[in-house]
Amino acid sequence: MTAIGTDTIEGFGSTDETARSWLRIALAVALLAGLAAVPLVANDYWLNAVLIPFLIMSLTALGLNLLMGYAGQASLGSGGFMAVGAYATYNILLRLPELPLPVNLLLGGVISGLVGVIAGLPSLRIKGFYLVASTLAAQFVLEWLFNQYGWFSNYSTSSSISAPRLAILGHDLSSPTGRYLLTLATVAIVTVVAIRLVRSQTGRTWMAIRDMDTAASVIGIPVAAGKLKAFFVSSLVIGIAGALWAFAYLGTVDARSFNLDRSFQVMFAIIIGGMGSISGNYVGAAFMILLPILLDHVGGAVFGGAIDPGQLENLQKALFGALIVWFLIKEPRGLAALLSRAWTQLASRFER
Amino acid sequence: MAEPILQLRDVSLSFKGIKALNALSFDVERGEICALIGPNGAGKSSLLNIINGVYRADSGSVSFDGERFVRIRPARAAHLGIGRTFQHNALFRHLSVLDNVLAGLIRHSRTTLIEHAFGLGRDRSETRAFGRRADEIIGFLDLARHRDRVVSTLPYGVQKRVDLARALVGRPSLLLLDEPMAGMNQDEKREMSSFVLEANRSFRTTVVLIEHDMSVVMGLSHHVVVLDYGRKVGDGTPEEVRRNPDVIAAYLGTVH
Amino acid sequence: MSFFVETFIGGLLAGVMYSLVAIGFVLIYKASGVFNFAQGSMVLCAGLTFVTMRDRGIDFWLAGLITLTIMVAIAIAVERVVLRPLVNRPQITLFMATLGLSFVIEGIAQIAMGASVHELDLGIVDTPITVGEVQVSQFDLVAAATAGVLVIALSIFFNWTRVGIALRAIADDPLAARSIGIRLQTLWQIVWGVAGFVSLVAGLLWGARQGVQFALTLVVLKALPVLIIGGFTSITGAIVGGLIVGASDSLAEIYLGSLLGGSVSTWFSYVLAVGFLLVRPTGLFGDAPIERI
């Protein structure tokens, strides 16, 4: 079964399947409880530098995967949509401080989603790599816009924006634990909604467009609306992730934090993790966020002080690139498929 | 006699100066099975593509169910009740049989994105109703064994049946079948013929099909239209067409 | 008016250099079906290698020859090690692989040759020439002439030789190339080798213009809109697209930039390219496939 298949096929009820889906839900709840308990044992470094960026990158990857892995519309505009989410949320917090934080994040996401629809309009005419190039236009224009016009950053120096006080119902969330839990809760909720969505008529519409768009239109599937909805939902999720990246992770950002390299990073995460797979987003995000940290530590331990830090950085870059290429060649369906194969083998060993 | 469900009048089409169809006219009666035959390159697939709007005719018109058009969008054709299967495999290859069939129902969906995301309103009842309807068709075409398999892993003949299921599930009043039996052996062809006949009888679906195997055509269809180089050279019952000297010269004569 | 003409001509001259880079992309796209993002790091790598050897006192032509050998070797190795195992994979995966590859080339090139900005002197005098009221940079003229000669030579090579015909054939059908008598693998190596050569020339010209530095890799972002406007599969398209992007970019920078109060060069050519796409979905000279179902 393909990586896409495992996540997209919904059964209408054999008992075996019902039991398995209950097992899955139980596992997910246990995992979530475990993750929520992490601040009890982890120190601030782990929360700030590892777990928070990992979770937010997973969320961004999820957003892009809905568009690219499910609806088949490739985009390199993720950084730009993250920026829209961050700057929109910042402005709503600033100008409408009485709104509760969750509403705020959602509104920021919706604004990003609407910008995504506009950026997605060319997809009604063009396909494939030409479409990728047109999403680059959105990326560059958005990045430029937030740098150029001070209004978006409330005329701060260097167009940067800083986190206002993060609080829900009076609970202050500015501590590492608070920001971690805010991120975790957001990721959990969005993941559940995304799973629902890809298994619904909407998800089926997207996958039909991805697999064979001409046939889809001939059997009466609304292709144009489906594409634009994919752009909307995808940019909405990416926009929320951008706001978290700005306020729950970095604290202060400017538009450069959402440049083309960020878009590349997100695209790598889903290709390495697994396109059209929900779990692939977490695996891919872990790869993209954890591997550089790991290389950093290993490099520091091995060469510590022996070579110039700039050289070490170049070495890491080369090694990281080589690993990416190697995984792309070795694992066409992404790490999620690899893990799911390993899991099946493990399970069958236990059953024997 | 009732008005024909499909009327073509002087339909012409050319690609880069080469005439694919030349002032073609014929009628398809409600409830019949009409076969389009002719050598390769006679313009049969192009004709189906015009009827459901994938191509635009250079001139002439098509009337379906009393509605006359020159150019129709494919999605609109589907909504009017024109179903279609494809000559080359055009299934959604990463999806299961069930999901492919369910995709054929999307145009009947009345639920919104928000309902899908949060499982609100009519989403649950629609999902159940669609599931039942898809399972009915899957049973009807004897696909139950393959229901949860990803279609790209299935044998070719089964994939052809999935294509038919996807078209039939939306209950089209006109079904266009582009070589539904290409590449099949005799047993598979017989099986497919019986499914087409069953669909025609039980759902009262009018069928226009393209087929090369003359024994299949003669056994299955009420009405045969013969094309040669984009022109109509024969039009009538299988018997009449078989006796038509022009047809024999243009087509049957080359087969033996 | 003379200012307008000056800007326009300056833009066209820069455009010829965009065309040069874009042709490297077109060749590889036709042969391997990928937009090779690593082309930018190959340009950097060529510039760095050449300038490092010159700094060590190696003769101009010898340095050129050694760099050429290295570039062709890298290009052929890339085709072998990275792209061949990825045959038949989605276009976007190929693209991302070349992006990963660019990390490798940039990392290694900078480890070996350092990351500082190097001056590169090709011995071209840069005093402006005045024609009537219009001033034109002499360096730009020479660079554009060199690029122009190369562009014409490459178009002739790929339009009239057996290799060129084979290249056109494989775009439709990989087996067809064989009937012309050229093995597919030889063809791939020739094309990638030529792409290595093009990156050398581009690396020298761009390097002499703005110093050999990391920013050279960004020419790939300039080449992309050129290819969209011209079509990924057309050498003529790359030339015309380069001129359009070069001229419109420098005009927009002056006239639109002052209107919007800032530099528009990062995005203008992309927005222009999207405009072109909406009218011609496969570029000015790209092939539009007839959809058969």
From TrEMBL, chain A:
Name any GO cellular component annotation: plasma membrane
Q: Where are the transmembrane segments?
A: 21-40, 46-67, 74-93, 99-121, 128-146, 180-198, 230-252, 264-291
| Chief location | membrane
GO molecular function terms listed in the Swiss-Prot or TrEMBL record? branched-chain amino acid transmembrane transporter activity
The protein's location, in the record's own words, is: Cell membrane
Tell me which Pfam families the record gives. BPD_transp_2
Sorted keywords for this record are:
Cell membrane, Membrane, Transmembrane, Transmembrane helix
Record InterPro entries: ABC_transp_permease, LivM-like
How does the protein associate with the membrane? Multi-pass membrane protein
Q: Which PANTHER family match?
A: ABC TRANSPORTER PERMEASE PROTEIN (PTHR30482:SF5), HIGH-AFFINITY BRANCHED-CHAIN AMINO ACID TRANSPORT SYSTEM PERMEASE (PTHR30482)
Name of the protein this chain belongs to? Branched-chain amino acid ABC transporter permease
Q: Which organism is it from?
A: Bradyrhizobium cytisi
Automatic annotation (TrEMBL), chain B:
Per its UniProt record, what InterPro entries does this chain match?
Answer: AAA+_ATPase (IPR003593), ABC_AA/LPS_Transport (IPR051120), ABC_transporter-like_ATP-bd (IPR003439), BCA_ABC_TP_C (IPR032823), P-loop_NTPase (IPR027417)
Query: How is this protein named in the record?
Result: ABC transporter ATP-binding protein
Residue ranges of domain ABC transporter in the record: 6-254
Q: Name one GO molecular function term.
A: ATP binding
Name its species.
Bradyrhizobium cytisi
Q: At the top level of its lineage, which domain of life is listed?
A: Bacteria
Q: Keywords of this protein's UniProt record, alphabetized?
A: ATP-binding, Nucleotide-binding, Transport
Which SUPFAM superfamilies does the record match to this protein? P-loop containing nucleoside triphosphate hydrolases
Q: What does this protein do?
A: Involved in beta-(1-->2)glucan export. Transmembrane domains (TMD) form a pore in the inner membrane and the ATP-binding domain (NBD) is responsible for energy generation.
Report the GO terms under cellular component: plasma membrane
Residues spanning the signal sequence: none
From TrEMBL, chain C:
A single GO molecular-function term is: transmembrane transporter activity
Alphabetical GO biological process terms = amino acid transport
Task: Write down the Pfam families for this protein, in alphabetical order.
Answer: BPD_transp_2 (PF02653)
Q: Which UniProt keywords apply?
A: Amino-acid transport, Cell membrane, Membrane, Transmembrane, Transmembrane helix, Transport
Which InterPro entries does the protein's record reference? ABC_transp_permease (IPR001851), BCAA_transport_permease (IPR052157)
* Membrane topology, from the record: Multi-pass membrane protein
Tell me where it resides.
Cell membrane
RNA-binding in keyword set: no
Classify the main location. Answer: membrane
Coiled coil segments of this chain: none
* Keyword Cytoplasm attached: no
**Segments crossing the lipid bilayer:** 6-27, 60-82, 94-113, 141-160, 187-206, 226-247, 254-279
Output the Gene Ontology cellular-component terms: plasma membrane
Report the sequence similarity comment from the record. Answer: Belongs to the binding-protein-dependent transport system permease family. LivHM subfamily.
Q: What is this protein called?
A: Branched-chain amino acid ABC transporter permease
